[in-house]
Design a protein that fits this description.
With about 400 residues, this protein is α/β, with parallel strands linked by helices. It has 18 helices and 13 strands. The chain is about 40% helix and about 15% strand. Helix 1 links the parallel strand 1 and strand 2.
């Protein structure tokens, strides 16, 4: 293949022992980049996200969960009973023929299967073993939370996001987006491609340790910086350095912006035709504006409240002031800019039909636009994987199926 036809990870084989969001999202990014991703699933059950609503159903009564479809495009599915000796033999044989192993099970799951990092290295010294966990897994870096399991909401709470989200006098709020799961999957994917690049020079694999807790604290790193410099923890609704910021009500919804510099403050003042506020004693700095929002807030509310989103955006952009509308999922799905950017993945699924989902956000100048394949049916690629990769005969595959190994 020429450089303009080849996707960058073509030829890389990934085994994905994954469930829910963080692991599947990580492997899906690699699949988008051309890797062959083989999703290892439990026979008859599969990834729990297969059974989460909302569902689409076809005339045959077959169902597919939207949550599963969201994070499992362009993959293959192999059902495998790893509790059986034959199943473990198959898994080990595939590990020997793969480049990457991704897993996001409970911290001790693979160890109980006898697949420690050291054992994986024995099976395949070139293997990149990537683990996504709540609090990290790498030996020598253990902490008191290392054995804890966790979900996105738990890590938002522990990592600082919830403490910053909500009204001043209200309870901490969850961000209704999978910021920890997706953030960890992105950082782990970066770790994987970095490890693959390193392997080209050393011929050795390594362990990539993705910690959801550290992802969230990294996303909230500015608050840690504020504590380091001021000795105080930033609190929701109590900005002390930057103001104004957040959402402002307009005639037809809300717009949002943040003023991080005095130059940006001057641009906003010109946009709202209040240049007198640029040097006003109460509003001439971020600290002063934060302390005097009782004075400044009504001025802003009055100006924004008399205008539509389009009017505000046009006026602010004319003055060089970044601002954007608060958008719903419907707004995003019908966004002309995202359509022009080819940001959507149009998936023609045999059960759900044609669905418009978010696609890969990474654009490479040489990478062709290739339509994603639908998420796999449970065990859809059993025969293909066992026959093409491991060389199993039809008779042996039939025997494995009859005995519940696959």
């Amino acid at each position: 293949m020429t450089g303009t036809q080849r996707r960058p990870l073509a030829g890389i084989r990934v085994l994905a022992m994954e469930q829910f969001i963080a692991g599947p999202s990580c492997s899906m990014m690699l699949a988008d980049m051309g890797a062959e991703v083989i999703k290892i699933e439990r026979p008859k059950v599969g990834d729990p996200r297969r059974h989460f609503p909302p569902f689409a159903e076809n005339a045959k009564g077959e169902k597919i969960g939207g949550g599963f479809m969201c994070f499992n495009r362009s993959k293959k599915s192999l059902t495998l009973n790893t509790k059986s000796p034959e199943g473990m033999d198959i898994l080990k044989a595939l590990i020997k023929k793969s480049d990457v192993l991704i897993e996001n099970f409970r911290p001790d799951t693979l160890e109980r299967m006898g697949l420690t990092f050291e054992r994986l290295q024995e099976l395949n010294p070139r293997l990149v073993y990537a683990t996504l966990s709540g609090f990290g897994r790498l030996k020598g870096y253990e902490g008191p939370y290392s054995d804890w399991s966790a979900f996105d909401t738990v890590l938002q709470a522990m990592g600082g996001s919830m403490n910053l989200t909500g009204l001043r006098d209200g309870k901490p709020l969850v961000v209704e987006a999978n910021i920890v799961d997706i953030g960890t999957s992105i950082l782990t994917a970066l770790g994987i491609v970095t490890a693959l690049y390193s392997r080209e020079h050393t011929n050795e694999g390594c362990m990539v340790d993705g910690s959801m807790y550290e992802t969230m604290t990294t996303l909230c790193e500015e608050s840690v910086m504020m504590y380091a410099f001021t000795g105080e923890s930033p609190e929701r609704g109590k900005e002390k350095v930057f103001a104004p910021l957040g959402a402002f009500k307009v005639k037809d919804g809300y717009v949002a912006f943040r003023i991080p510099t005095e130059d940006m403050w001057a641009r906003l003042c010109r946009a709202i035709e209040r240049e007198d506020l640029i040097e006003d004693e109460k509003t001439s700095s971020g600290v002063k504006r934060a302390a005097n929002m009782d004075f400044l807030g009504p001025i802003l509310d009055d100006w924004f409240g008399q205008r539509t989103k389009a009017e505000v955006i046009r006026r602010c952009h004319d003055c060089g002031m970044p601002v954007g509308p608060v958008q719903s999922a419907a707004d995003i799905a019908n966004c002309e800019h995202l359509e022009k950017r080819k940001a959507f993945a149009y998936i023609d699924d045999p059960v759900a039909g044609r669905k418009k989902l978010m696609g890969c956000p990474i654009k490479l100048s040489f990478m062709p636009d290739i339509a994603p394949t639908p998420p796999p049916r449970l065990g859809e690629h059993n025969r293909e994987v066992l026959q093409d990769i491991l060389g199993y005969s039809d008779e042996w595959i039939e025997e494995l199926s009859n005995t519940g190994v696959v």
